[in-house]
Amino acid sequence: MKNRTSYFISNSTNQYGGVNMKKTILILSLVTFLLPFTVSCTIQQALNPSSQSTEPFPIIDMHMHMYQWDKYGDPPPPNLITNNTPGARSDTEAIDAYIAEMDRYNIVLAVGSGELETVRKWKEHTPNRFFGGIEFPKHTEPVNKRIEEWPDINEFRKLYESDQLMLMGEITAQYAGVALNDPKLEPYYALAEELDIPVCLHTGFGPPMSPYMGDPNFRMRYGNPLLLEDVLVKHPRLRVYIAHGGYPFLEETIALMLMYQQVYVDISAINWLLTPEEFHAYLQRLVQARLGERIMFGTDQMIWPETVGMSIDAIESATFLSEEQKQDIYFNNAVDFLKLDKGKYLPGSTEYYDESGARIVEVVTSEIRMRPANPGDQETVSVNLQLSGVTSTAIQVTGWDIDDVTETVMLINDQEVELPAEIVADVAPKTVTIELEEGLLREGENTIIFIFAEAVGGTTGFSILDVKILLRE
Question: What CATH number is associated with residue 286?
Answer without folding.
Answer: 3.20.20.140
